[in-house]
Amino acid sequence: MGRYTLMRLGVFAGCLVVVWGLVSLGLAPRGFGDSNYMWIVLLSLLISAPISFVVLRKERDRASAQVVARVDRVKANLEQNRSQEDSVDDAARGGAQGQPSS
């Protein structure tokens, strides 16, 4: 998961440098007033998203498989704990039913 995040940040950083260069050269429009840096960041995000979607598909699938495996492991542990609690609870109830009431 960390590898995918770093690769995604790398794609964004590359787009940020390219967009900043294009805006500095006047090939891309500047933002209004003091919003030029925000414009560059937003334009970089807009460009990097589809690039990441296509280029990092295999890495995203690997990260997704890791997340699914982790969730399945946690679910199995929870189910195991729940079944242990149920068996202890059933044993406690069974012992209480066998004792005479006062």
- Tell me the distance between the termini: 61 Å
Main pleated-sheet profile:
none
Radius of gyration based on Cα positions: 28 Å
Beta-strand share of residues = under 5%
Give the overall shape.
Answer: elongated
Query: What is the H/E order?
Result: HHH
The parts where pLDDT drops under 50 for at least 5 residues are none
Label the structural class.
mainly alpha
* Helix percentage: over 70%
Total domain count: 1
The number of helical segments is 3
Molecular structure report:
There is one protein chain. This protein is mainly alpha-helical and 102 residues long. It has one domain. Helix content is 83%, strand content 0%. It has helices spanning 2-25, 36-55, 57-97. α1 (2-25) packs across α2 (36-55). The longest helix has 41 residues, at 57-97. It is elongated. The model has no long low-confidence stretch (mean pLDDT 86).
Give a short synopsis of this structure.
With 102 residues, the chain is mainly alpha-helical. The chain has one domain. The protein contains three helices and no strands.
Task: Please describe the structure with a list of short key phrases separated by commas or semicolons.
mainly alpha; 102 residues; 83% helix
Chart the SSEs and their pairings:
Layout: H1 2-25, H2 36-55, H3 57-97
